[in-house]
Amino acid sequence: MSKVIITCAVTGAIHTPSMSDHLPITPQQIAEQSIAAAQAGAAIIHLHARDPRDGRPTPDPAVFMQFLPVIKQSTDAVINITTGGGLGMSLDERLAAPLLAKPEMCSLNMGSMNFNIAPSAARVKTWKHAWEKPYLEGTTNFIFRNTFQDIEQIVERLGKAHGTRFEFECYDVGHLYNLAHMLDRKVVEPPLFVQTIFGILGGIGAEPRNLLFMKETADRLFGDAYVWSVLAAGRHQMPLCTMAGMMGGNVRVGLEDSLWIGRGRQATSNAEQVAKIRRILEELSLEIATPAEARAMLKLKGGDLVGF
C-alpha cells in the first residue's frame, strides 16, 4: 500500500454562505483556509472562486489570481483548479481561470449529469443573500454539461497545451466507462487520478456496496494505470473516506463536499476535516503523502511550471 494522498476541496460551488458561517468566501479567507489545510496534511488543494461581495461562484480569473499566488508562496501543496466552475457557467467561462493559471492539476467531470442540490435549501431558515435560494432550488431542472466533445476540448486546451493533469471526477459507473473510452483512444494518458464520488443526487449513492463496485469496475477498466481516490458528500464523508483508506485508496475532504465534522456539528474550517481524516488514517497505520510524493505518484509537472 502506497501513502495516502489527502485532497482538500476548500469552498466549491455547491454550498452557499447561509449554509455555514465557516465557508470561505473572500480571496483572503480561501487563501488562509487553503494554507491551513495544507499544514494539516493535505497534499492537494482543490479550488473554486467566489464573488467576495455575496459569495456566489465566479469564473473571474482576476479573483482566482488574488489567492492562487498567496497559496503557492505559503505552501508546497499541489494546486488543483476546477473546470466545473459553478452552475450555469459556459465552458469558456469555466476554463478562463485554468487557462490563465496553467496549474499542475484540474478537476474534470467525466460526463453530463443531473446535479440536484435543491433539498439543501429546505434546511436553511434565514438567507444572507437573495441569489442563494433560487440558485439551489433551480437545480431540480439543471443538467451539468460535459459532453465527450467538451471533455476532449478541456484535455486539449489544458492538458496538451499546458501540461496540466486531471482529477477525473466520476459521479457514477458510466463515468468510469467514459474515462476508459478516452484512455482507449489515447485522449488521456496514465496514471489516471480517478476521484469516485458518492452521495450527490443525480449520481451514485453513498453506500459501501457502491464504493466496492466502483473500485472493482475501475480495477477492471484501468488495471495498474490509475490512482484511486474517494469523496463522499455530507455525513458520508468520513465513513467512506475511512473505507477507502482501508482499501488502499486516497481521500478527499473539505467544505466543498461536506459542512460537517460530526453528528450535528458543523466543521469550523477545512483544516479541521483534514486533521480528522489524517488522524483516522494514521490510527490505521497508514502514512500520509507529502506534496512531493503526490507529485511523483501522479506525474505532475511541478509548481515551478504554473502560470502564477
TrEMBL record:
Keyword Hydrolase on entry: no
Gene3D superfamilies, A to Z: Aldolase class I (3.20.20.70)
Pfam families the UniProt entry points to: BKACE
An example Gene Ontology molecular-function term: metal ion binding
Residues annotated as signal peptide: none
Keywords: Metal-binding, Transferase, Zinc
Family annotation (InterPro entries): Aldolase_TIM, BKACE
Cofactors that this protein relies on: Zn(2+)
Parts forming coiled coils: none
PANTHER family reported for this sequence: 3-KETO-5-AMINOHEXANOATE CLEAVAGE ENZYME, 3-KETO-5-AMINOHEXANOATE CLEAVAGE ENZYME-RELATED
Descriptive protein name: 3-keto-5-aminohexanoate cleavage protein
